[in-house]
Inverse folding.
C-alpha cells in the first residue's frame, strides 16, 4: 500500500510503502541521500536516467542526480561531490534550506528506508556530461512537461515543492 503525507511544513513529504510491523528476518537498511535540483536560466530541470540494479523497478527512469551521504560527510559536501562525479559540474545552491523527503520500500529480503535532502541549485562551472555508470543519459526538462510516470519516486514531489516555494 502506498501512502503519501505532507508534514507541517511545505518542505517535507513522505512517500512509501506501508511496512509490515511483524518481527522479520529482513535486513533493515537506512540511508541519507542528497540530490541537486539543477535548474538552468530558462527554468528547465536537469534529470538523469538511472541505471539501477538494487531497485530494478527504477532502472531506466528519470530522477534528480545525487547520491548517498558518506559517514562523517555534510550533506552539502555530498551534493558537490556527487554532481562532480556524475555530471562533471560545480553548482551553487540557490535556496538555503533543502526540501526533505522520506521513502520506504519493502523488498523481499530488505526493508529499505531513505531520508532525502534536495537542494535547488544552478551550474556555475562545467557542462553536464555522463561521467558515471549510475545513469545512462541526462536531459533538460520543462517542469510542466515531465511525464512523472517515467520518474523514480520523489522526483515529482521535489519539483512541485520547489515550484510552490518559488511561486510564493
Amino acid at each position: 500500500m502506498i501512502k503519501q503525507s505532507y508534514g507541517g511544513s511545505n518542505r517535507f513529504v513522505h512517500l512509501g510503502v506501508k511496512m509490515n510491523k511483524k518481527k522479520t528476518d529482513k535486513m533493515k537498511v537506512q540511508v541519507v541521500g542528497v540530490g541537486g535540483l539543477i535548474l538552468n536560466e530558462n527554468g528547465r530541470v536537469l534529470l538523469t536516467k538511472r541505471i539501477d540494479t538494487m531497485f530494478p523497478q527504477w532502472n531506466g527512469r528519470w530522477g534528480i542526480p545525487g547520491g548517498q551521504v558518506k559517514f562523517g560527510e555534510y550533506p552539502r559536501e555530498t551534493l558537490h561531490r556527487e554532481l562532480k562525479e556524475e555530471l562533471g559540474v560545480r553548482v551553487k545552491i540557490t535556496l538555503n534550506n533543502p526540501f526533505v523527503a522520506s521513502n520506504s520500500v519493502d523488498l523481499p529480503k530488505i526493508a529499505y528506508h531513505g531520508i532525502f535532502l534536495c537542494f535547488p541549485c544552478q551550474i556555475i562551472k562545467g557542462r553536464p556530461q555522463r561521467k558515471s555508470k549510475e545513469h545512462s543519459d541526462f536531459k533538460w526538462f520543462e517542469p510542466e512537461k515531465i511525464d512523472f510516470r517515467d520518474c523514480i519516486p520523489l522526483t515529482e514531489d521535489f519539483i512541485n515543492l520547489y515550484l510552490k516555494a518559488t511561486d510564493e
